[in-house]
Amino acid sequence: xxxxxxxxxxxxxxxxxxxxxxxxxxxxxxxxxxxxxxxxxxxxxxxxxxxxxxxxxxxxxxxxxxxxxxxxxxxxxxxxxxxxxxxxxxxxxxxxxxxxxxxxxxxxxxxxxxxxxxxxxxxxxxxxxxxxxxxxxxxxxxxxxxxxxxxxxxxxxxxxxxxxxxxxxxxxxxxxxxxxxxxxxxxxxxxxxxxxxxxxxxxxxxxxxxxxxxxxxxxxxxxxxxxxxxxxxxxxxxxxxxxxxxxxxxxxxxxxxxxxxxxxxxxxxxxxxxxxxxxxxxxxxxxxxxxxxxx
Amino acid sequence: xxxxxxxxxxxxxxxxxxxxxxxxxxxxxxxxxxxxxxxxxxxxxxxxxxxxxxxxxxxxxxxxxxxxxxxxxxxxxxxxxxxxxxxxxxxxxxxxxxxxxxxxxxxxxxxxxxxxxxxxxxxxxxxxxxxxxxxxxxxxxxxxxxxxxxxxxxxxxxxxxxxxxxxxxxxxxxxxxxxxxxxxxxxxxxxxxxxxxx
Lengths: 295, 198
Fold this sequence. Notes:
The complex is a heterodimer. By secondary structure, chain A is α/β, with parallel strands linked by helices. Helices cover about 35% and strands about 20% of the residues of chain A. Chain A has helices at about 15-20, 40-55, 70-80, 80-85, 115-135, 145-165, 195-210, 215-220, 235-245; strands at about 1-5, 10, 30-35, 40, 65, 110-115, 165-175, 180-190, 250-255, 260-265, 275, 280-290. In chain A, strand 9 and strand 10 form a beta hairpin. In chain A, helix 5 (about 115-135) runs antiparallel to helix 6, helix 6 packs antiparallel against helix 9 and helix 7 (about 195-210) crosses helix 8 (about 215-220). Chain A is globular and about 50 Å long. Chain A starts with a strand and ends in a 5-residue tail after the last strand. By secondary structure, chain B is α/β, with parallel strands linked by helices. Chain B is globular.
């Protein structure tokens, strides 16, 4: 059995450590060993789900060992990870010892996105929860909940319209006391569809010639607003998300294929473009919205 | 009483969305929902032809409007009724878009090179979208006066006044009647007074 050890901390900063170890359609049994996990964010959870799905494409569902920490296991349960993971991993090895459910501390549980109805449900669900977090915790204006909902709607529609594959979305707020000295909201969206390059190839590859690849496909969508649809009204989603996230001094990154592109604020060390990453199907979007600093 | 030669078609989006399967709540999100709403609006105003009509699209009860929906419900709706072969002589005026939805509406309009007249409440009307300074000046004058009779445009707007009013009319931001007078859409959209009792 191949054992893939999950690091003690799994979030957007080190998700590549996990993805680099994943083989598509593993032929032998695979165990994701998450017993040492002590910290995980929505990017880590969706990364773990995606890795499990990809590893299981060979026909044999992988196993997962859940964290030994009751707090972390309970958090995974509240975020809906265990419910969604039941379709990806072999039956979970043990029940999580339940603590009183604190549903209010979850901004948006892991939610599968396959249809437009799912997008409606996500937008509807966050209305009540996001308002207080955005205005009281992040210090955004009261109308920010609408813009936040629009961001979620547009990133989720990206899955339905372009991915042709299953996807998930999740969001949560954290207090990054040591890392940033501020609260943040983290939004993760991930799908295992065809990715940006395959989605855009038929319509746009010719004009880029030999330069066409994962990086140019991401640049075409991210910087130029190109989509596989020829009409002018398309492609606004990512462009408008970029503008809104920048207004809030947030981080936005999109990983697809072997590359990642990002709008990086001054507080982030992420490079604007990464290439030569381990190939992974679909697209992974990470948005981090920091508390208004009052500058 | 002079009979008005135009009619008003108020469209309450919140009420319209309640009757559509594609819109389960008051959120105008996703392109298929926007397309369904636009088609419902077009069906509702189809009876207006061949009369001149002003359709007031009211966003007041809409919670969230995303860019995909705004593209369908605002931009593509206007595009359908812009060319001479339009399905009906309908003008559009948007209400309830100012603070929350104004950004999405303005962005999709600008992307298509369109502009729209918006009711910002308490008698204030404005333009959103893509316009030139000359167009805005002419539109503001017309909006203030509500109507500019034939022959008055030069004195009010200068030598290019008539051309600018025609330009606004072509962009469906003003109405030119057969007698050559220009009217603002806000004037056309005023509630129709009740007929005199016999």
